[in-house]
Amino acid sequence: SQANRGPLLEFAQALYPGMVAAVRACADDMYMEGSFWLVKVLSRSFVVEEDTVHATDEFEKGWTVVEAQYYSLEQESPRGYRLLRDKRYVLVNHMVRLMGIEFMRTKRANNGLSILDDKWDAAIRDSV
Fold first, then answer.
1. How far is 34 from 25, CA to CA, in rounded Å?
2. What is the pLDDT of residue 78?
3. pTM of the predicted structure, to 2 decimals
4. In a 3-state reduction of DSSP, which class is residue 6?
5. Contact 117, 104 (CB under 8 A)
6. Cβ atoms within 10 Å, residue 85
7. Helix or strand or coil: residue 24?
8. What is each CA distance from 75 to 33, 87, 111, 113, in whole angstroms?
9. Cα(70)–Cα(42) distance, integer angstroms
10. Taking Cα atoms as reference points, which of 22, 4, 37 lies closest to residue 97?
11. What b-and-e string marks burial along 22-49, b requiring 16 or more CB atoms within 10 Å of the CB?
C-alpha cells in the first residue's frame, strides 16, 4: 500500500555500501539459520528497471533492491558469521528495518568469524 511506501523508501535511501543488514528468512529457510540472515550491503538501493533474473533469483520491474553478500552462520554461541563471496540482489522489502547493526569488536581471533553480540541478535529477532 502507498501508506507503507514512505517508511520503506526512507529505509531504502538510508542503506549504504559496507553496512550490515538483516533479511527476514522465508518460512522454508528458517531451519537453516533461524528467522533472519545477515548481509553486507554492497550498493545503494536501486529500482529494478525490467523483470530480471540475478543469481537464480527473479526480480520484477519496480522492485527496490540492493546488491549484497550474505553471511553464513558458522557458530551458534556466540553467533559467529563468515562472509560469503557470491554477490546477490536482496529485496529491500524483505530487510529488517534496523540501522546500525554491527559485529563485536574483539581482540580474540574468532577463527576469522564476525561475532554478533546477544543484544543485536535479540533486537533483530524482536523486529523480524
1. 7
2. 87
3. 0.87
4. helix
5. yes
6. 6
7. strand
8. 10, 22, 10, 8
9. 11
10. 22
11. bbbbeeeeeeebbebbbbbbbeebeebe
pLDDT score, position 27: 80
CB atoms inside a 10 Å sphere around CB 98: 17
Instruction: Report pLDDT digits (tens) over 78-125.
Output: 899 999 999 999 999 999 999 999 999 765 666 789 999 999 999 999
The 3-state DSSP class for residue 64 equals strand
Q: What is the dihedral of CA 19, 40, 87, 113, to 10 degrees?
A: 150
Asked if 17 contacts 43 with a C-beta cutoff of 8 angstroms, the reply is yes
Give the C-alpha separation, 12 to 95, whole Å.
9
Cell of 47: 529500482
Q: Which residue has the higher pLDDT, 112 or 9?
A: 9
First to last CA, the chain: 20
Q: Each residue of 15-70: pLDDT tens digit?
A: 999 999 999 988 888 777 889 999 999 999 999 999 888 877 888 999 999 999 99
Dmax (CA) of the chain:
47
3-state secondary structure of 121: helix
> In this structure, what C-alpha cell is assigned to residue 73?
552462520
